[in-house]
Design brief:
Blueprint (H helix, E strand, L loop, with lengths): L12 H7 L1 H13 L17 H20 L4 H21 L5 H18 L11 H21 L5 H7 L1 H14 L10 H17 L4 H7 L2 H9 L13 H6 L2 H22 L10 H12 L9 H4 L2 H16 L1 H11 L6 H11 L7 H29 L4 H16 L18 H16 L1 H5 L1 H6 L5 H25 L9 H14 L15 H13 L12 H16 L5 E2 L2 E2 L2 H28 L4 H12 L13
Antiparallel strand pairs: 1-2
Helix pairs in contact: 2-3, 2-6, 2-8, 3-4, 4-5, 6-8, 6-11, 7-10, 8-9, 8-11, 9-10, 9-11, 13-14, 13-16, 14-16, 16-17, 16-20, 18-19, 19-20, 19-21, 20-21, 21-25, 24-25, 24-26, 26-29, 27-28, 28-29
């Protein structure tokens, strides 16, 4: 008798529900913490909140809650509800914090993080343990909410609201710990301790709101310990480190954030030159600016930081200038570790290597070229500074710092007026200009220079980079000389006017040094400089901006469209349509970011529109020039 085959279990709707357990738990915590936004405003009482504000925040929390409920039956609809609720809460909260840019930025950052979790780039398609992942998702989100609550605990009410998310997280952890799915009895102790921390925090709320919120951090930590993966069990969902290390982009962002935070802590904890300690916010800004090789500063490097602080700043500039991924690859290579296939592909494109097999040799060439050029620049500048009257020791330190800062296109200087004091010293101006140009071309283009001199074969990328860089150096120099001859350049000799016009053309391409007073420039010159800063330097270089090749491809695409051609061409070679699309996308995204940031600056700062746009593009292109909007003070 033929036996009926065992029916294969179908994938019920509940399994799709399990797949989203972590997100659902996070949404529970976010919905519970939404009322905390009422206390972000400096006013400590709820009576000053309008009914519209309270109603909008309540609607946002309801949408997030509805999104969590709908994830099981309709994931797309649930994500839409949750995303709309997060956007609504963030918009209402930020609109009430226009005079507190720091709090507004943190709010937008938290909302952005939540949206990236709600709408992932590549959703996971694995089956998960719903109660466990739901509890872990709630715990992670609750921990973030508690950290935010530490900054707004101004009253008993705000502390009570800050306890909602950790209470929910520990409740979900208890449900998992005492369920049949979790036979490990040792998981119950952390969850119980988390519940006790919530009760202790509630008892402390009347006396010390800050202490209550601080104690409540133990609740989500206990929830995470209670829901940890069993020893020896295969991971159902990728861990944090696997997620980060699995994508070069995530490695870059995570490493960048860690370096910036470490630099901020070191700069704020180290001795200050003036005796007054540097605030953590200012130190973090300077750390980010140095790592991004931007050069913008809210404090004066010469008066705020001691010698150790300047050394730390220089190390951040070097790491940021060479590229965090380049340093990571170099470290792994020196340790004998092999890069992943994705990392090799990314580094191959960044360094312009012929293939993954040539990556190690190309990496050594790039690092060697960098240190040789910086060393030669330091020697030349040291000699020039000694001739200018500096003591040998001070000239050596100033030469090393300026050389690295110039090659990395950082723009930080050891003089409060940048290089204005050397505007009549053409040797300093042209050595710094040369370092900026070499750093802004990129390693792949710079290493192709011998082939250009010999007339040998050169890739389209390298040839286009060289030609575009030359055009974007000469034309702005002529414009600055013509527009500022009797204005910002007035008072200088004819030769010094030419030297400074050239130097300013070079440095506005993301270097950030200035040898003339930028506040005295004509509006037309400022507008031209904004365009040049937006374009930036070469791909894979220490410069920022949308890159010279992107601008060149857009220009060639426009020429082809005007001529009625179907494809853009350069030097007789066809430019792939996909490359043109990427150039359009990069430029569009850059323009939108600059527009949104400029609007945000104008809403929060009393600043002329042209100055605000200049500061925004200077930061976006990692230039560091300023017309007074972010001057140290």
């Amino acid at each position: 008798m033929e036996q009926n085959p065992t029916p294969r279990p179908s994938a019920p709707r509940a399994r799709r529900h399990d797949e989203l357990g972590g997100l659902r738990g996070a949404l529970w915590s976010i919905a519970a913490a939404c009322p905390l936004a009422l206390f972000l405003d400096p006013t400590p009482t709820l009576s000053d909140r309008t009914a519209v504000t309270v109603g909008a925040l309540g609607l946002g929390a309801l949408l997030v809650l509805l999104g969590a409920l709908r994830l099981g039956s309709s994931p797309r609809q649930g994500r839409s509800f949750a995303g709309l609720g997060v956007v609504l809460v963030a918009g209402v909260t930020t609109s009430g914090l226009l005079m507190e840019p720091g709090a507004a930025f943190v709010t937008l950052l938290a909302a952005g993080a939540a949206l990236t979790r709600i709408f992932p780039r590549a959703p996971q398609t694995v089956w998960a343990d719903a109660p466990r992942d739901e509890a872990r998702g709630a715990a992670f989100a609750a921990l973030a909410c508690v950290i935010l609550g530490l900054g707004v605990q101004r009253s008993l009410s705000s502390a009570a609201v800050a306890l909602l998310a950790p209470s929910l997280a520990v409740g979900l952890a208890l449900r998992y710990s005492f369920s049949e799915r979790n036979p490990d009895l040792t998981r119950r102790a952390p969850a119980v301790l988390g519940a006790l921390s919530v009760l202790i925090a509630a008892a402390l709320a009347g006396r010390s709101p800050a202490g209550a919120v601080a104690v409540s951090t133990l609740a989500p930590l206990g929830a995470l310990l209670a829901t940890r993966r069993a020893e020896g069990a295969a991971p159902v969902l990728p861990g944090v480190w696997e997620v980060i290390l699995g994508d070069p982009a995530r490695v870059l962002v995570a490493t960048f954030a860690a370096i910036c935070l470490t630099g901020g802590v070191l700069l704020s904890s180290g001795p200050a030159a003036s005796g007054d300690p540097v605030s953590f916010l200012d130190a973090l800004f300077m750390s980010v600016s140095a790592t991004c090789v931007t050069g913008l500063g809210v404090i004066d490097v010469t008066t705020a930081f001691s010698g150790l602080g300047r050394v730390i700043l220089l190390l951040l500039i070097q790491v940021g200038g060479l590229g965090i991924m380049t340093f990571s690859a170099a470290a792994l290579t020196l340790l004998g570790q092999r890069l992943s296939v994705r990392h090799e592909r990314t580094m191959t494109g960044l360094l312009g290597a012929e293939g993954p097999g040539h990556l190690q040799a190309e990496l050594k060439r790039v690092l060697g070229l960098t240190f040789v050029v910086e060393g030669l620049g330091a020697v030349a500048l040291t000699s020039l500074f000694i001739q200018a009257g500096d003591a040998p020791g001070g000239a050596l330190w100033r030469g090393v710092f300026t050389s690295i800062s110039a090659f990395c296109n950082a723009g930080f200087a050891l003089q409060s007026d940048s290089l204005v004091g050397y505007q009549t010293n053409p040797g300093v101006l042209h050595v710094v200009s040369g370092l900026i140009i070499f750093g802004g071309l990129g390693p792949a283009v710079l290493l192709a220079a011998p082939r250009l001199v010999r007339g040998g074969y050169m890739s389209l990328h390298a040839r286009l980079s060289w030609v575009t860089a030359a055009v974007l150096l000469v034309l702005p120099a002529l414009f600055i000389a013509g527009a500022e001859w009797g204005n910002a350049l007035a008072g200088l000799s004819t030769s010094d006017r030419v030297h400074n016009a050239w130097f300013q053309s070079v440095t506005l391409r993301t270097a950030g040094f200035n040898s003339i007073d930028l506040t005295a420039l004509n509006p037309a010159t400022v507008l031209m400089m904004i365009l040049m800063m937006f374009i930036g330097g070469g791909p894979g270089s220490t410069a920022g901006g949308i890159k010279t090749t992107t601008a060149a491809i857009l220009f060639l695409a426009v020429i082809a469209a005007v001529r009625g051609q179907e494809h853009a061409e350069a030097f007789g070679r066809r430019i792939p349509t996909g490359t043109v699309y990427r150039a359009v996308a990069i430029t569009t995204v850059g323009g939108l970011v600059a527009f949104v940031a400029a609007v945000g600056v104008l809403l929060t700062q009393a600043m002329p529109p042209l100055v605000a746009l200049f500061e925004v593009v200077s930061a976006l292109g990692t230039v560091g020039l300023t017309t007074g909007g972010t001057s140290p003070g």
